[in-house]
Amino acid sequence: MHMCNFCSTFAAAKVFRNNRTLVKNMDISIIVPLFNEAESLPKLYEWIARVMKENKFSYEVIFVNDGSTDDSWDVIEELKIKNEKLKEGIVRGICFRRNYGKSAALYCGFKAAQGDVVITMDADLQDSPDEIPELYRMITEDGFDLVSGWKQKRFDNKLTKNLPSKLFNATARRVTGIPLHDMNCGLKAYRKEVVKNIEVFSEMHRYIPYLAKNAGFTKIGEKVVQHRKREFGTSKFGLNRFVNGYLDLMTLWFLNKFGKQPMHFFGLVGSLMFFIGFVAVLIVGSMKLYALSNGVPAMLVGVNPYFHIAILMMILGCMLFLAGFLAELVIRNSPSRNDYLIKEEI
Ligand code: UDP
Ligand code: MG
């Protein structure tokens, strides 16, 4: 059949339009990391599904079972079967062989997510799904890359959670330069591009906004969210999270500042120490020579404490310099040494 140019273009446009309707993007992916939260899951899912339906969102819920030893996975399987009958949204599940931690669960959830906006929330019903529509709006309409929840009124133990958390957040604000009140809030919303371009590992889930900022996603917002008492089970994080959290913050800060050029830190500190030690040795030596030439009694250089301090400074200076140099050699071999996030090209 012959088709004129105009007709064929029109036909193509139609197919294209049809294709576009066929591959309509998914609005929201909700990632729920969980460890032994079987009792909370049915209520949480029902609540999410209700909010999604009321707001006519297309969505998926990705439950990441972080090695639970209770019935959590059975419950997720049941939810999936129940959901398939309803034909609303999609339920997906990822089941770890053992407990790897919340960061690992989020990492796998982020990899799997397909929605334009990705929401993370805890499984213990402490975060409210009613917040999702506004979080979605802030990403899609206000243009935020990331919106973090702020549990302004917390329903946790005051002494073990609320107070240390205030101190933790004050430190995190200073170090990261991100003015968030609740950096570690489990309820967060992200533009899809953000989660596909950051890598959460170890226990870095506490600092995802910092990871995002370091990757170049700087429009970070905050929304006051409702917080609820834990209905079932117990908290999975003890007081050691503050020690680990502090160390992780230092690691991230250091990596961000000197991760690509360690010599700028080790080389500088090492050189400075060596220089101070060298000058001190010169002073100790010349004072001894001066004393000898003038016949003044002076202690042996070998028993002079300043001499030992100076030598120690020179040795430490050399070691630091060498550490920086070795780190530079390691980075040269890193596969990500030339990974840059390109925003757009014309
Ligand atoms: N969680 C997880 N893996 C872990 C620990 C916790 O997936 O190793 C999940 C947990 O099931 C919950 C969320 O992370 O959905 C937050 O944990 P929790 O409520 O215990 O923290 P808290 O609210 O007490 O800070
Ligand atoms: Mg909780």
Question: What is this structure's SSE topology?
Answer:
Elements: H1 5-22, E1 28-34, H2 41-54, E2 59-65, H3 72-86, E3 90-95, H4 102-112, E4 117-120, H5 132-140, E5 146-150, H6 158-176, E6 188-191, H7 192-196, H8 208-214, E7 220-224, H9 240-258, H10 263-293, H11 305-332
Parallel strand pairs: 1-2, 1-4, 2-3, 5-7
Antiparallel strand pairs: 4-6, 5-6
Helix pairs in contact: 6-9, 10-11
Bound molecules: uridine-5'-diphosphate and magnesium ion (MG).
Uridine-5'-diphosphate binds next to strand 1 and helix 4.
Please explain how this structure is put together.
This protein is of the alpha/beta class. The protein contains eleven helices and seven strands. The chain has a seven-stranded mixed sheet with strand order 3-2-1-4-6-5-7, sandwiched between helices. Helix 2 links the parallel strand 1 (28-34) and strand 2 (59-65). Helix 10 (263-293) packs antiparallel against helix 11. The protein is elongated and about 100 Å long. Bound molecules: uridine-5'-diphosphate and magnesium ion. Residues 122, 124, 126, 230, 235 line the site of magnesium ion.
The tally of beta strands, per DSSP, is 7
List segments where confidence is low: pLDDT < 50 over at least 5 consecutive residues.
1-21
Total helical elements: 11
The main pleated sheet reads as:
7 strands, mixed
How is the largest sheet built, in terms of strand order? Answer: 3-2-1-4-6-5-7
Structural class: alpha/beta
Give the strand content.
5-15%
Overall pLDDT score: 92
**Rg measurement, Å:** 28 Å
N- to C-terminal distance:
39 Å
The ligands found in this model are: uridine-5'-diphosphate, magnesium ion
